[in-house]
Amino acid sequence: MTAKIEVSPEIKGLIFDLDGTISDTMPIHYIAWRNAAARYGIDFTTELFEQLAGIPLYPTVEKLNELFNKNIDPREMGDAKEQEYEDNMHQARPVEPVMEVIRRYHGQLPMAVGTGGGRQISQKAMRLVGVDQYINKLVSADDVTHHKPHPETFLKCAELIGIDPKDCLVFEDGVLGIQAAQTAGMHVVDVTQYYQVTIGQE
After folding, report:
1. What is the structure's pLDDT at 54?
2. pTM, to two decimals
3. Which residues are identified as catalytic?
4. Residue 10 above 90 pLDDT?
């Protein structure tokens, strides 16, 4: 599971999702969502989590309202989930095959992070795994109008690093993110082929 990720010589810029790509935060996100949802009588399964991965905080609650015919206040449930996540995010470990790519190309290729998370919590997640010393360009949920699978997040990253989208390689773990990268006309690597995802295992 720890095969080296190869980057084609034609690639001129690297763009990384954050949760589940650079930082193995998805198990922590999952438990926080499961606990928050349980208070409203929703069984938040791992399948549901994978289906909603990449959707920002409050829109996720809106999606749950649609799916379960509920009328939950998105801020109330979303903030409770985010607080639990923030209390436990220090447990996240870096995704080593991806960090290896970041260290290898630091100073050689321009890099950015494009995430569905809010700016403040994403900056904290980057600090916790030490990626902030390699990448300082970030496009968060707060910086876009349209979220993944819309390509806006990754197109803004390409703009930030000054590279044509067709010359960018995106690293992603989520279906919506992979779709966003493809729609943006970028190359994409599914990082879940390179490390063991432990969602739902405690």
Report:
1. 83
2. 0.92
3. 17
4. yes
